[in-house]
Amino acid sequence: MRDSNTPAAELLSQAVSQHEAGRLQEAIEAYRAVLERSPADAEVASLLGLAMAQSGQPSGGVEFLERAVTAEPDQAGFRLNLALGLLLSGMEERAESEAKAVLQLAPDNARALELLGDIALRRQDPEGAAAYWRQSFALQFTLPLAVKLLRHQIRALQFDKAKAALADLVPHFLDDPAIHIVNCELQAALRDWSQLEQVARWVTSRFPGRRDGWKWLATAWFETGLHAGAMAAYRRAFELRAPDADELAAYAGLCIHALALDEAAAALDSAAALDPDHAGMLRRRALLHLYHGQLEAAEACCRRCLAREPGNVPAYTTLTRARRGRLEDEDLMVLLRVVDDGAAPFDSRIAAGFAAGHVYDARDEVGKAMAAYGKAHALAEERDRAEGSPYDGTASEARMALLAAQLEVEPLPEQAPGSPRPVFIVGMPRSGTTLAECVIGAHPGVVACGERMEMRRVLHAWLALQAEGRTPDAATLGAWRDAVLASLPDAAGATYFTDKHPLNFEGVGLIARMFPDAAIVWMRRDPVETCLSVYRQEFDKRWQFVHRLGDIGHYYGLHERVMSQWMTRLPGRIFEVRYESFAADIARQARALVEAVGLAWDPRCLEFQASGRPIMTFSAVEAREPVFVRSGRAARYRRHLDELLSALAAAGVAAGRET
Question: Model's pTM, two decimal places?
Answer without folding.
Answer: 0.77
